[in-house]
Specification:
The chain is of the alpha+beta class and about 160 residues long. The protein is about 55% helix and about 25% strand. The chain has helices at about 1-25, 30, 60-65, 65-95, 105-120, 150-160, and strands at about 40-45, 45-55, 125-130, 135-145. Helix 5 (about 105-120) runs antiparallel to helix 6.
Length: about 160
């Protein structure tokens, strides 16, 4: 009888521990219900490109152990990184789909032309702390617009052809 009680108690503790671990290790994709959010989505003539970006809060926020400040600075850092990550992934997917290759100069040309005219602003879909703290976070960012995918493809094609 005592063994059975110990077994039940251990089982409850293990289940509780696993549940606690899962809740504290959530990422932005789990916050969204587990759906994968990287890449293109098209709906009603609007193209949207999603990218997941990880970042770290500022050292000042971490030193102060201020959760709200860590959240804010981590989300800002993620957004700053998101545009560059997004453009590089868009170009990579487009070049791969066109079975082409870009050299460094052509890649820089495509990045600059997309950054300066095609993308109007990066939006934040959602963010989540990593490991139960906002010292590190993961966010999902996106850009969208009518025919955005075709415009990206056009800019990459110009870069492939030598501008």
């Amino acid at each position: 009888m005592m063994r059975k009680n110990i077994f039940i108690t251990l089982s409850i503790l293990i289940i509780w521990g696993i549940s606690f671990y899962i809740m504290n290790c959530s990422s932005a994709t789990h916050v969204a219900g587990g759906e994968e959010f990287e890449g293109w989505r098209s709906e009603n003539g609007i193209d949207t490109f999603y990218v997941r970006t990880s970042a770290r809060a500022s050292e000042n926020a971490i030193e102060k152990d201020d959760q709200e400040m860590m959240k804010t600075t981590c989300m800002e850092a993620a957004k700053l990184q998101a545009l560059d990550n997004m453009i590089r992934k868009m170009i990579g997917e487009t070049v791969e789909a066109q079975s082409g290759m870009l050299d460094g100069q052509a890649t820089n040309y495509a990045i600059n032309s997309i950054r300066s005219g095609v993308i109007k602003g990066v939006q934040t879909k959602e963010c989540a702390p990593r490991g139960g703290s906002w010292k590190n976070c993961e966010c999902i960012h996106y850009v969208s617009g009518p025919n955005l995918k075709k415009e990206i493809e056009f800019q990459v094609q110009k870069a492939l052809e030598g501008h």
